[in-house]
Write a structure and sequence with these properties.
The protein is mostly beta strands and about 675 residues long. The protein has 3 helices and 45 strands. The longest helix has 6 residues.
Length: about 675
């Protein structure tokens, strides 16, 4: 028998805190209309064997887990009266106690319906045994009735805006109650070997085991004094040692310490005391002097990102099931997988052989010294622990395993797994004395993509450029088999997160993004056409097209490749047009035809020079600029039918990706 297990399904769906009944806390919120009455449904539950409800009308309610904590026989709800009180925190007003009844129940769960004003509440529910219930309600407050309670639960309820169909959960415990209860344990040695029973001198088998210390602890503090016990050997279940006494209501830990050859071996049981009840159990102590503890199981790993997106670290969450009563501590090993150069998910580790065949570079072990170590954030690896939070760097890859350890040795290893999306990866505590700590609330972690521990960051540095869109520049990903696509601002790949088509998204000065590099000063070009399958942090620095040098006429000789034609209406002989000394001349006096368009065609002398756009500007001295004509092909159509006789200037500018380059060519059109 052992500790309370987390009521995970409730924690996942609802957010609530449990406090000691003597340590009530209230949270004030904004005020709406207080006159609205809401009918709410309250669920009462306990995941240990403290409370039972005789009916089973709703099998689909939240399922119960079997607790390993030693507890007295469950109290039937039919033998209890329930009283509800608390405080309206919005108006800072205590609520008079009212007696409540259960309407629909199932084993270890009951339901109450209640009408309350629309407000925010801190509520307390107590259970009082009927045969001792002499309570006369006269505007009492719940704090006045705690002396009578055998069970207690606290929760918050926000009825300001929330849907009234959302359940309000009371988790019934003995925490903070005032009454006394009894414990009565029967202890015996279960199948101990003769080697464990041999005396320290080694000359004979002991008839008694005398060096045994017994103590009861609460929150790791000794309650009372340690006791010395002496076991007669051989012990059987019907020949037992009695260990009994009384305690205030609450949760406790029984520790037995066996001392042999200057070594200490521990046996631990968790138990709960309820006022007026006796907690009893027959405990067979396994041969812990010769046998390592039972191994932990369900070793799952997840992560929580740091709140600062620029942080180089994240929180690695370990969660496991403790199956032993005899461990001194747990040992977690984390193996560095960074030397594995295969950019795919490494082989899943399931046993010692698979662990040893990994390409390891370094293995770190954490045990009792985990608390306060370099990678510690919260939790510990001492006996009875079930979770730990590590502070790990982004951009590294690991595998992990855990075992339980005592003076007799270590258990077999349990290898780390990624939690499935439906499984809870939990850490943290909800106890009253720890609510001020940052990890006191229950933390639900996200699973990795595989059994490999790895988070890396893709960070995009624009390197002085401007991105024409809204985009976060930092991304976190866990390693995946298919990899992660790298952003390509100009749509270079169909796998691009941002496929922009013809839109220029990233530019610097007069040039556009060309590719990403791994280094601010240049370095390796990153391939964006295939997804990134690595595990290291990837800092990407934008690289841009170089500004083109000035282009002279030898490279772009349009005077040697220029031709003109006219688009006209009417009949008659059209003049032949040619470029002569940077002039184009033609006669408009022939009445048999009229010129509508002047067609200007050019070609590139050097086919390696090709501009995205060419702009033609038409002007004269009298009127200034008359028109701007653009073309992405090698032809311009210049309307001239409205132009008077005279001389006109033509200037041609070239562009790369809409950015002008230092090139200009001029000629004149002479019309007579």
């Amino acid at each position: 028998m052992k500790k309370f297990e987390l009521f995970g399904s409730i924690v996942t769906i609802f957010s609530f805190l449990f406090f000691s009944c003597n340590n009530l806390a209230y949270d004030v919120t904004v005020s709406p209309n207080h006159t609205v009455r809401r009918t709410v449904t309250i669920t009462v539950t306990s995941n240990s064997n403290l409370l039972s409800f005789p009916n089973n009308n709703e099998p689909n309610l939240i399922s119960q887990k079997t607790s390993r904590t030693i507890a007295p026989a469950a109290i039937s709800s039919s033998n209890l009266n329930f009283y509800l009180g608390g405080k309206d925190v919005l108006y800072n007003k205590k609520l008079p106690v009212q007696k409540v009844n259960f309407l629909e129940t199932q084993p270890q769960q009951g339901k109450i319906t209640l009408a309350l004003d629309s407000s925010s509440y801190y509520l307390t529910l107590i259970a009082v045994e009927k045969d001792t219930d002499d309570i006369v309600l006269n505007n009492n407050y719940i704090e006045e009735l705690l002396e009578k309670a055998v069970l207690c639960g606290n929760t918050t309820a926000d009825l300001l805006y929330s849907d009234t169909t959302t359940p309000i959960i009371f988790y019934m415990t003995a925490d903070g109650l005032h009454g006394q209860g009894n414990y009565d344990f029967s202890l015996y040695l279960d199948n101990w070997s003769s080697q464990s029973l041999i005396s320290d001198r080694g000359d004979k088998v002991c008839q008694t085991i005398q060096d045994v210390e017994a103590g009861i602890y609460q929150n790791s503090n000794l309650v009372g004094e340690k006791s010395s016990l002496s076991f007669d050997t051989p012990q059987q279940e019907n020949s037992v040692l009695s260990y009994k006494g009384s305690l205030s209501a609450g949760n406790y830990e029984l520790r037995l310490t066996f001392i042999k050859d200057k070594k200490k071996f521990s046996y631990v049981e968790d138990f709960v005391i309820i006022p007026g009840q006796t907690t009893s159990s027959i405990l067979g102590i396994p041969d812990l002097l010769m046998n390592p503890p039972a191994p932990p199981t369900d070793f799952i790993q997840g992560y929580v990102l740091a709140s600062d997106s620029n942080s180089d670290y994240y929180y690695l969450i370990f969660n496991w099931k403790d199956n032993s009563n005899t461990e001194d501590y747990f040992e977690i090993q984390i193996q560095d997988e960074n030397s594995n150069t295969v950019y795919v998910t490494p082989t899943t580790v399931i046993d010692e052989n698979a662990w040893n065949t990994q390409l390891e570079t370094f293995t770190s072990s954490y045990g009792q010294d985990f608390y306060g170590s370099k990678n510690w954030y919260a939790g510990d690896l001492d006996k009875n622990s079930t979770w730990a939070i590590f502070y790990m760097p982004l951009g590294s890859r690991y595998i992990s395993r855990i075992r339980s350890v005592n003076q007799a040795g270590g258990s077999s290893w349990c290898y780390g797994k990624s939690g499935s999306p439906s499984a809870n990866i939990e850490a943290g505590k909800n106890t009253a004395e720890e609510v001020s700590l940052p990890y006191s609330k229950k933390i639900i972690a996200s699973p990795f993509y595989s059994d490999i521990i790895n988070l890396y960051r893709l960070k995009y540095n624009l390197n002085g450029g401007t991105f024409n869109s809204t985009i976060p520049t930092i991304y976190y990903f866990s390693q995946t088999t298919n990899g992660i696509p790298i952003m390509t601002p100009e749509g270079a790949t169909t796998n691009s997160i941002y496929n922009s088509g013809n839109t220029i998204l990233l530019s610097k000065n007069e040039t556009t993004w060309k590719h990403w590099r791994r280094d601010f000063f240049g370095g390796e070009i990153v391939d964006v056409k295939s997804n990134y399958k690595g595990f290291e942090n990837l800092n990407l620095y934008a690289d841009y097209f170089d500004l083109p040098a000035a282009v002279d006429n030898n490279d772009y000789s349009i005077e040697n490749n220029l031709s003109f034609s006219v688009e006209s209406s009417g009949s008659g002989n059209q003049p032949s047009l040619s470029l002569n000394e940077n002039k184009v001349e033609f006669d408009m006096t022939n009445d048999n035809y009229s010129i509508d368009q002047l067609i200007f065609t050019y070609s590139y002398k050097n086919e390696n020079i090709h501009y995205s756009k060419v702009q033609l500007i038409l002007s004269n001295d009298e009127s200034g600029e008359l028109g701007v004509f653009e073309s992405s092909i090698n032809t311009f159509s210049i309307p001239v039918h409205n132009l008077n006789s005279g001389s006109y200037d033509v200037v041609i500018k070239a562009f790369i990706s809409n950015n002008p380059i230092p090139y200009k060519y001029s000629f004149q059109i002479i019309m007579s």
